[in-house]
Amino acid sequence: MPCTMLGRPPRRRARHAEVVMSTVPRLALPATVVFTLSLLHSPAAAQAPTAAGEFVSGQAAATWEKWKTAMQALLARDKQVIEFAFGELLADNPSPLRLALFAERTITQRDIGGAVLLLEQDLQAGALGEKGKHVVALLETGREQMNEADDGWWFASIGRSDIANANFSALLKGDVDPVALLEFADSKPGRRELLVQVSDNPVVGEAARGILRLLQAGEERVKADPFRIKQHVDELGGPPRAFDYALARLKESGEYAIPFLVQALRDPQKKDLNRAVIRTLPLVDRPGLNPLVMALRMRDDAVRRYVIAALGQIGYFTPVPYLLALRDDEQTPAEIRAAAEAALRDLSSHGVPLEPGLTAAEAFYRLAKAYYNNQRDVAADPRLDTANVWYWKDDLLVNVPVPAAIFNEVMAMRCCEEALLRNADLKPALALWLAANFRREAQLPEGASDPTRPENYPSALYFAETAGPEYCLMALAWAVDDGDPAVALGAIEGLRRTAGPASIMGTELGRQPLAEALSFTDRLVRVRAALALANALPSQPFHNSQNLMPVLSEALLLHSGSKSALLVEPDAATANTLGAALRDAGYEVLSDANLFAGLQKVRTQTPGVDVILIASDIRGPALAEGLKQLRAEFRFANTPVIVIAKPADRSAVRDVIAGDHRSGHVPPDVASQGLATAIAAVSRAVGAKEITPEVGGSLALEAATVLRLLAVTNNPLFRPEQAEPALIAAMDSRDAALRKTVAQVLAHVGTTPAQEAIARVALNETEPLELRGVMFAAVAEAAKQHGNRLSPETVRSLSDTVQSAADMAIRTAAGQALGALNLPGNPASEIIRKQYGG
User: Fold this and answer.
1) How many Cβ atoms sit within 10 Å of the Cβ of residue 78?
2) I need a labelling partner for 148 at 20 to 30 A (CA). Which of 91, 139, 586, 812 fits?
3) What is the structure's pLDDT at 607?
4) Buried b (16+ CB within 10 A) or exposed e, 724-737
5) Dihedral, CA of residue 160, residue 161, residue 162 and residue 163, to nearest 10
């Protein structure tokens, strides 16, 4: 269906040519115009207030003045000055789209409108120097980007998603300037709304979301624009109305304003601004907290007192550990300690919890837990791709952007480090650091890096191995409580590599986290926990021990990979289409029109589910209530959820899942690749790992190996026959190593079904000879331990193989198996008689 139509101007180049041609006669200048180099550096030009007020960034305004100077030089026809002016312009590194916007703006200016035509004419005449040619090349690229953007919006507005997608996709590949694109987008009303409207479209949706992300990045750059922030800081010293305006703009800049406000307090030439800046600092409110607490590391105690006082007026817990650290450090000057104490009293009066005797180390640990638990008052803005980690370096506040997906984990680790610096024996802080590091590593977006860590930074597992089993168990306990598969898998692997049986089965924490993990919602976590527990060869019952053999059986069935999905969709046609796409992707699909009925199918028909797809128009319950109840059940607390956003519900869906990294959304007509991408993104965010055939085969082999170990050691608690159905099913695998190991376990089981399963492979002439030999040996071992349990038909087939198999090695192996059966009568005599040749 076509979207709301936006007015589309003619193609940019056509309109540009028309306007320039009409303005050339009016703008022709007399030959007597003299243009001097001093004009290039005119302070008046650099500070033109009209230009600064018409651009979203101060850098753009400053570069516009250089562009104007270059255009004036063109009109003056002085080649030397022209080339110099273009060099000055290029020194600002303007983007192609920025220059295209400048050119569009220029043709509307009465005094310089003809300069763009002269620029093109000089290029054709070969009159431009190298810098001028470079400017023209950038300008042409920018015009193409402008046309791509313009056409993208136009064709999206008339429902031609294919052409809109082609233009937007080309624009995204062109490394377009986000700030310039933001200006261009906002030059016509409704453009952002149109992008949101088509963001779920199966054809243009992905590209539209990419453009929206670019616009968001442009807004962030505008907020951080130092030109604007400095200007607004200076305006704080004006009359009340000017102060209010500047304050509003600085609050919009948020954390980015803090370094400039702090520097203003440190600048002796801006003492007249001190009172206004001191008043402003706490009014920036929560967004300013992270840079403010880092500013406490400055050596300027006078300014530090102002910062401390501001922190006391912002009613959040974040500054508490930093203020406690100052107050309790005997090396801190007395006046700073007193200021910190006063700020802590102020925070307490604002309702911030401060227990008597709270130490800085304990407070840092508490703040770390807040970050780790993604508390809203410390979490990164989920709408943004990056978030800032602040440092005090070289006597300045410095921000380091990190992927927003790992911001909370990076900050949790930092707070744990601060806690350990003050109390090296604070065990929970060390364990929390390990857990946050596992999660940071898992949630780091594909292809991204963490700039807060140096190159060749060790893996999270390295630190877990170094810390040892006690801390891995503590981290695992949190993972079990939170339903966090990324942390659980990391902690279990750390235990596997470092813990002995006593540590794995220990109850030092008052609980057994590894045993609890046997009931974990994520299948891979359950299996890893079961393998670790079984390898410890437990001989006494433990909490959840009844689940060990069922989970090992589950692992055996993963030999070909395993993925399951629940599809809740009341529309039959959509359910059929999406169900087929899921099955094509290798999922076993459970489906229902009702959410609660579908969840009950998961509980009763499958050991777990990898993803849940829910239509936005479900009823009884509706979407928001259904998601709330689903997340309240531990089994589904961290299961990836994809909402099928129907056209009428798209805005509501975005509101419902906003900020929830466990959820995503797709349109009902999403292509298979788009669905797979959405599932992969959410799965990665929650730390869930796909069980591919390779992973499943490895897990099945590990399970078979540990079952063999339990059988060989004659474990009194866990017997391999408890996994017999899964063992027999695993014999259908095409993995020779798995089948050999399973056969050895089945030999210990020794029942009729077990012996028949081994013999079936041994007697199958299409199987590899080497594998058949191993199977005959397993038949012999089963018979030695349990006697013959084979059917008469199977015994006859075995006897025939002994007598007539073409391969002598097979005949020999089959003969050993036949002898081990210890059959009544004398089958060997019969074989000898049959081979008699006279």
Assistant:
1) 18
2) 91
3) 65
4) bebbbebbebebee
5) 60
Non-local (6+) Cβ contacts of 373 within 8 A are none
CA distance 411 to 417: 10
Type of residue found at 710: L
The reported pLDDT for the residue numbered 671 is 85
DSSP at 332: S
- Give DSSP secondary structure letters for 463-488: HHHHH-HHHHHHHHHHHHHHT-HHHH
The alpha carbon of residue 641 and the mean position of all alpha carbons in its chain are separated, in whole angstroms, by 15
Nearest to 521 by CA among 678, 373, 631, 644: 631
Q: How far apart are the C-alpha atoms of 372 and 356, rounded to whole Å?
A: 24
The pTM of the full predicted model, rounded to 2 decimals, is 0.77
DSSP class of 175 = T
Asked if CATH classification 1.10.10.10 holds for the domain at 694-834, the reply, yes or no, is no
- How, if at all, do strands 641-644 and 564-568 pair? unpaired
Per-residue confidence (pLDDT) for residue 681, from 0 to 100: 86
Domain spans of the chain? 12-221, 226-364, 564-690, 694-834
Nearest CA to 341 out of 329, 331, 351 is that of: 329
Q: What is the DSSP letter of 763?
A: T
Neighbours of 498 (CB within 10 A): 17
pLDDT reported for residue 825: 66
- Per residue in 339-390, pLDDT tens? 999 999 999 999 999 999 999 999 999 999 999 999 999 998 877 889 999 9
Q: How far apart are CA 284 and CA 277, in angstroms?
A: 11
Q: Residue 834's pLDDT is what?
A: 62
DSSP assignment string, 239-299: -HHHHHHHHHHHHHHGGGGHHHHHHHHH-GGGGGGHHHHHHHGGGG-GGGHHHHHHHTT-S
List CB contacts of 458: < 8 A, sequence separation 6 or more: none
Percent of the chain with pLDDT over 70: 92
User: Which residues are 568's β-sheet partners?
Assistant: 592, 614
Q: Which segments in the chain show pLDDT lower than 70?
A: 1-54, 607, 825-838
Beta-ladder partners of 397: 392
Instruction: Please list the residues that pair with 525 across neighbouring strands.
Output: none
* Per-residue pLDDT reduced to its tens digit, 496-508: 999 888 888 877 8
Verify cis geometry, omega within 30 degrees of 0, for the bond prior to 647. no
What's the pLDDT score for residue 829?
60
Report the b/e string of 242-258 with b at 16+ CB within 10 A: ebeebbebbbbbbbbbb
> Which of the four CATH numbers 3.40.50.2300, 3.90.79.10, 3.90.226.10, 3.40.50.300 does domain 564-690 have?
3.40.50.2300
- Where helices occur in 659-731 by DSSP H, the ranges are 672-686, 693-712, 724-730
CA distance 141 to 431: 53
